[in-house]
Amino acid sequence: METIVVGGFGVNCSVCAGTDGQALVIDPGEDLELIRDHLQEQGLSVAAYLLTHGHCDHVSALAALAEAIPAPILMHPEDQAWAFTEVNSMPPFYTTPQQPSAPISALTEGESYEFAGLTFSIIHTPGHTPGGVCIHFAADEVLITGDTLFAGSVGRTDLPGGNSRTLTASLKKLKALPDATRIYPGHGPVSTIGQEKKTNYFMQGD
Ligand SMILES: [Zn+2]
Ligand SMILES: [Zn+2]
């Protein structure tokens, strides 16, 4: 598991290496060259592109990267709906993210997926965005949390489609995971579910 920090908002683009020199690329938000160079250095091809949610800082290098290195693209349908439209531009930092030319498949809650010999399931965690998900590698006790849960904080809910009550319900799902689960947020340092339950205000109580 390697994290490449991309773009002006410091998005953690995760590269999870599996079997046969294949990897998952999660949230290729910007800096296509950095991601491509990392894959090349490690001798990795891409088994799939996964998106934790649709925000421009997480998806803006997707189309060009998937053009250069084709692989299936998966994202929750509720964020696919707006991610490549102008509501997702953030001038002067981001223009409207380019729609990939290949079709995008759905990430669906409760379903299990396998790419590159890595098995993961999807926990739908709306609140920061309607189609936000956490990607759970249960066997590895790893959770990619996107902008739902950070070390010490949570994603903002004041952007279009955000909802603080919905986010609270989503966090409740995450609290049910084993304490040893290592979390890899969309921004900032890694942590664990146990640590966040102890110290993160938003993970306290019911
Ligand atoms: Zn976001
Ligand atoms: Zn973000």
Short overview:
The chain has 206 residues and is α/β, with parallel strands linked by helices. The protein has helices at 32-42, 56-59, 62-68, 77-83, 164-175, 193-199, and strands at residues 2-6, 11-17, 22-26, 45-50, 73-75, 104-106, 112-115, 118-124, 133-137, 142-146, 149-150, 153-154, 182-185, 191-192. The chain has a single domain (2-203), classed as Metallo-beta-lactamase, Chain A (4-Layer Sandwich), CATH 3.60.15.
Describe the structure in your own words.
This protein is an alpha/beta fold and 206 residues long. The protein has a single domain, classed as Metallo-beta-lactamase, Chain A (4-Layer Sandwich). 23% of the residues lie in helices and 29% in strands. The strands form three sheets. The chain has a six-stranded mixed β-sheet with strand order 1-2-3-4-5-6. It has a six-stranded mixed β-sheet with strand order 7-8-9-10-13-14. It has a two-stranded antiparallel ribbon with strand order 11-12. The chain is globular, with a radius of gyration of 16 Å. One zinc ion binds next to helix 2.
